[in-house]
Amino acid sequence: MSEQITAEISDRICKHMNDDHADAIVLYAKTFGDTPNAIAAEMLSIDSLGMNLIAQMNDDATPIRIQFDHPLKDAEDAHHTLIEMVKQARSNSKQNVDI
Question: Which residues form the DUF2470 domain (predicted)?
Fold first, then answer.
């Protein structure tokens, strides 16, 4: 069984996402956080129900709460869910460009 999402696990996930997948976090903010004008974003925390981001739009920093489509069971579920969300966001982004 994978690790539950504790504060320590949240910090580890956020650090990894912020350091290695900043582009994905911006996509989360744009697609799921209703901030299509976001130019940057940072993941602040994650729990079983959602994630907290801060999105940069021009000179404003806006806090965003994104709810997951299901309660996460553990850290492994978080990993798979975040991957699926970025795939969905990329797919939506391509559809919007093609219109």
Answer: 10-85
